[in-house]
Amino acid sequence: MTRQESAAADLERASERWRVWLAGETSRRQGPPGSALHALWDTLEAWFASEEFARSPVAAAMAAPPDGRGPAAHAVLVRHRQATRQLLEDLARSAGARDPEALGGQLLTLVEGAIAGAMIDRHGGAARHARELTRIALAGSGGAG
Fold first, then answer.
1. Residue 37 and residue 107: Cα distance in Å, rounded?
2. Tens digit of each residue's pLDDT (9 = 90 or more) over 65-122
3. What single DSSP character describes residue 2?
4. Residue 124: how many CB atoms within 10 A of its CB?
């Protein structure tokens, strides 16, 4: 196995762990029906404030895609984005969005932007901004803001 393939395999494992963690934490933090998207941002805000976030290979890859690390790492990131988008679509659906696929795509953009912002700024303020944009998007999609 080449060094690039090994790095891609490590990123794949980190991606899987992160998505399982995000789904579990979001589910655990949910309160009343329709609160899944609030739980998403609560979860991410706490993660942004943690030491784990600063060391996260997933956050680093999302903030600065690993294109220079070979096609295998790029393929991992593509799969990570697809799986994360599906998770976000599921959360949008549970929040009552009229078009969960469209909202899931919007949320993916917000999540990735919040991760990049939190990596650069070293604080979770990006999650609060994204939470407000999510509320606006959800209200516009007919969901329970």
1. 9
2. 656 667 888 889 999 999 999 999 999 898 888 899 999 999 999 999 999 989 888 7
3. -
4. 19
What whole-number distance in Å separates Cα of residue 31 and Cα of residue 34? 8
DSSP string, 32-63: STT-HHHHHHHHHHHHHTSHHHHH-HHHHHHH
Tell me the H-state helices in 1-145. 3-29, 36-48, 51-55, 57-63, 71-94, 100-121, 125-140
Q: How far apart are CA 116 and CA 114, in angstroms?
A: 5
Coil, helix or strand at residue 144: coil
- Please, what sign has the CA dihedral across residues 87, 142, 45, 116? positive
The structure's pTM equals: 0.85
Tokens of 74: 């790029």
